[in-house]
């Protein structure tokens, strides 16, 4: 292959974008916005304005209320989408592209007063780059590196380069600059930190900087991926460059999954399996529950005794017990009241985990789990989920995605305003100005919940 991997990647971005692609992108923009608006009610959101200290007034919307210049909007908004673990995800790449790409594109498009089509085309382009790079980086990279931040930096750079109208050679430069700044280590999940939000904020802003720097004429390393001192050599034990050079088909945004429940995606197959059995057994009949799943699900979500809302959302035991006890998992199930609930705690301690080597072998192409419930009388009920709800093989409908968004937005906006934001997102493919969508998201009288989520929410 002639040229560098980034040159090959950029060349693949020139294919047409169809109306159906933009419709799909508008759902991802809405999904990110709703997740961010709900995340803005959480205590961690109070730290993010410190990143934009000294920012100027501007036309770019802050989902927590008000407006600012593009730099401030990127930094503050891009820390909010992952707070409640309801963000979109590409399972093969193990990257949450919306967390970095959407807020960066929204701010830059608002600042330039661009139409909705421009925003959506940039989002589609950015998702393509982040996903292809995540697929190339592989699970060896994901073991230590927060792929959403590392690959998200590259994806954001490509998206902003599209908004800025950069020539292909300048986009290659932008990806080179992005590689110089791509970062984010998984130690943040081993300790009680707010660093994950900083990582996505930094990745989004770094992508914007990379594109603007390239647009000014600054040359970047073209072999930032495959070079002897490049991204693969430094961070990827078993890179798969063929994921970048493979023939292109439909835009990869169509492969991205939506999350129906507020929990780590590795937990979702087990939640769905529990829901499949819930109506067949009463909680008092359950003697034991066994979850068999892939290795990374255990590495991320084996938490038998969660003590914080964040830990609850990363606990297979807690979420499976909640699904068996109450039905679909909601934000209320990670509230302090739920963590202290004796009935939920007792059931949680009956949930055992085990690795299923066959499921590990199919991961990350499949996020799957098997669940077995042993009744007090010794009989056993089983269920298996091979593709979690929201995956391409088990999709949420557009109406379900909009209903999810409406519910999350209603915590920050009036029901009427939440409906208006949903409608505004649907109008983006038809040319609604991005500023109009941004204004629909603003929650200038946002209530604080002091870290608690109402069980009735």
UniProtKB/TrEMBL annotation:
Q: Name one GO molecular function term.
A: lyase activity
Span of domain MmgE/PrpD C-terminal: 261-417
Q: Which InterPro entries match?
A: MmgE/PrpD_sf, MmgE/PrpD_sf_1, MmgE/PrpD_sf_2, MmgE_PrpD, MmgE_PrpD_C, MmgE_PrpD_N
Domain named MmgE/PrpD N-terminal: residues: 20-241
What family does the Swiss-Prot or TrEMBL record give for this protein? Belongs to the PrpD family.
The name this protein carries in UniProt is MmgE/PrpD family protein
Species lineage:
Bacteria, Pseudomonadati, Pseudomonadota, Alphaproteobacteria, Hyphomicrobiales
């Amino acid at each position: 292959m002639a040229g560098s991997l980034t040159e090959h990647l950029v060349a693949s971005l020139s294919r047409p974008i169809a109306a159906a692609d933009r419709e799909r992108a508008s759902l991802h923009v809405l999904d990110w916005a709703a997740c961010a608006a709900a995340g803005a009610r959480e205590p961690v959101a109070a730290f993010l304005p410190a990143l934009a200290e000294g920012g100027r007034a501007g036309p770019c919307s802050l989902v927590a209320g008000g407006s600012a210049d593009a730099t401030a909007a990127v930094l503050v908004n891009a820390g909010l989408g992952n707070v409640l673990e309801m963000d979109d995800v590409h399972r093969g790449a193990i990257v949450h592209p919306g967390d970095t790409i959407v807020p960066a594109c929204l701010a830059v498009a608002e600042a330039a007063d661009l139409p909705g089509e421009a925003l959506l085309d940039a989002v589609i382009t950015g998702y393509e780059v982040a996903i292809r790079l995540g697929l190339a980086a592989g699970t060896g990279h994901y073991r230590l590196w927060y792929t959403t931040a590392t690959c998200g930096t590259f994806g954001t750079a490509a998206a902003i380069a599209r908004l800025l109208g950069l020539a292909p050679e300048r986009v290659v430069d932008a990806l080179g600059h992005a590689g110089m700044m791509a970062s984010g280590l998984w130690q943040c999940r081993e300790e009680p930190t707010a660093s994950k939000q900083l990582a996505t904020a930094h990745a989004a802003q770094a992508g914007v900087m990379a594109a603007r720097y390239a647009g000014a004429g600054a040359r970047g390393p073209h072999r930032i991926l495959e070079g002897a001192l490049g991204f693969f050599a430094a961070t990827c034990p078993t890179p798969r460059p063929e994921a970048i050079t493979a023939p292109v088909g439909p835009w990869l945004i169509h492969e991205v999954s939506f999350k129906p429940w507020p929990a780590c995606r590795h937990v979702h197959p087990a939640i769905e399996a529990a829901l499949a059995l819930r109506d067949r057994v009463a909680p008092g009949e359950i003697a034991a529950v066994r979850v068999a799943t892939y290795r990374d699900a255990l590495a991320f979500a084996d938490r038998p005794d969660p003590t914080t809302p964040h830990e609850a959302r990363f606990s297979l035991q807690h979420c499976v017990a909640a699904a068996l006890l109450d039905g679909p998992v909601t934000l209320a199930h990670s509230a302090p009241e739920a963590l202290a609930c004796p009935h939920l705690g007792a059931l949680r301690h009956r949930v055992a985990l085990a690795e299923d080597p066959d499921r590990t072998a199919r991961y990350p192409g499949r996020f799957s789990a098997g669940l077995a419930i042993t009744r007090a009388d010794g009989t056993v009920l089983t269920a298996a989920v091979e593709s979690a709800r929201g995956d391409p093989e088990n999709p949420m409908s557009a109406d379900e995605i909009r209903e999810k968004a409406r519910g999350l937005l209603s915590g920050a906006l009036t029901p009427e305003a939440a409906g208006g934001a949903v409608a505004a997102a649907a109008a983006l493919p038809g040319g609604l100005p991005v500023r109009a969508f941004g204004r629909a998201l603003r929650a200038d009288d946002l209530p604080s919940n002091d870290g608690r989520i109402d069980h009735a929410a």
